[in-house]
Design goal:
Blueprint lengths: L23 H12 L2 H9 L2 H10 L16 H25 L6 H14 L3 H13 L3
Helix pairs in contact: 5-6
Length: 138
Amino acid sequence: MSADVRPFPTPAQPLPVEQDRGDWGALRAELHSRCADQDLASLWAEMPSSDRRMVMASAQLAERDPRLAIHDLPKSARDALRAAIVRMSQYAGRLRHHLAGGRPHPSRELASHARQALAEGNTEAALHWLAIIERGIA
């Protein structure tokens, strides 16, 4: 080292590791996993070949082999598959809503009963309505 260059000072003790606030670490890990297409890879692995063909056709990738693993496809193809799955899921949701006659989900009415019970100061009744929603009865 020359006389003009000095090393940065280093602390005698390493800095303590901050606790994970608000599950930031879990969110960060999920985002990294998503960037690496791990969520798409696990969904793709569970999907039967016929469904893979349908998704590939929607993504305009019908010429590709549906038996390929996700990580064997280029990033642009993976992005197209993800977009196709999102579109198809949104379409399925709209179709389900249409077939239900446009009625709101039954849990919405139960939630309004819970809100009414809370407004009346009846926490026992509110907890009853919330328990029904959480059990998935409606």
